[in-house]
Amino acid sequence: MQLDQRGMPNDFPIRFTDVDGDSRAVCLLRDADDLTSLNLTADQQAKLEVVSDERREFQHAAAVERILNLLDDELFFTSEQRDQLRKLIPGRINLDRTCYSLRPQSYYLSQLDVRPLLRSGPQLDLLSEIQRKRAADISDANSLRYSRNQCLIFRTNEGMHTWHDRLKVEAREEFQHLQTAVAVRESFIHSGCSLSDSDRRHLLVAGKGAIDEVVTEWKETSSNQLQRHIDQAARFRGNIAFAIQLAEVSAIDTNELWVQTVASVAPDADSLFKTRARGSTQS
Asked: Up-side HSE of residue 52: CA atoms within 13 Å toward CB?
């Protein structure tokens, strides 16, 4: 027997298991319409229905936890909020899908957008004022940060002389976006560590400093990248288009000023974040 030795592409597992993937031709689990050919007894049919319901319930519970984790990454839920949201999410989004995202794409795997949960519904009543502000930021349909590409596109036919001015405008928007990201973190730390008013102000000031450092570094790196493309376009006289990634929100969490200030005003924050992380891995 001759075996096919061709290598499989890196995305093969995803393509294989996607909605229209090749795995649909593999009968790992029969559809209800196919069960009639099995000639099950009434007792067997009853048992199958029980385990099918149990499997569906498990899958739905896992989907809810996945959705909660995605939202929690941005909104920093308290344990009480997480418990209440767990009860509200079923019925407000399709739980039969296998993949969910705040930045849905369909290049390889079909993903369901969870941002509608942040636009309307009783779940918003469970959020704090700053969380609702952050939710509005995330769910904005025109937001570049939560678009599929998450980047700025520059094209020579738009006029290279406008690029640096556009970058300045985007830097201001990045600063505003990161402000709500810091605010939900500060609120989460305060809810778990009961900070004094002085410590809260200290933490917010440090957050602004951390944002300034992150945005300044991003702006400098992006400006250098712009200049390289300007020089290249002038040399080759061709039309080009390129992308610049937006600043990473996660850069706040590793910023030295922010990390040191959190440790100073909230020594228990480390255990608080570890507890949050464990809650996010229960799915």
From this structure: 11
Specify the DSSP class assigned to residue 257: H
DSSP string, 4-55: --PPPPTTHHHHHHSTTSGGGGS-SS--GGGGGGGT--HHHHHHHHHHHHHH
pLDDT class of 53 with cuts at 50, 70, 90? confident
Q: Quote the CA–CA distance of 243 and 155 in Å, as a whole number.
A: 9
**Measured distance CA(260)–CA(2) in Å, rounded:** 62
pLDDT for 26: 44
CA distance 53 to 44: 14
Confidence grade of residue 118 (pLDDT, cut at 50, 70, 90): very high
Q: Is 35 a residue whose pLDDT tops 70?
A: no
Q: Please choose, from the candidates 222, 213, 227, the residue with its C-alpha nearest in 3D space to the C-alpha of residue 244.
A: 222
The radius of gyration of the chain's CA atoms, rounded to the nearest angstrom, is 24
- The DSSP secondary-structure symbol of 93 reads S
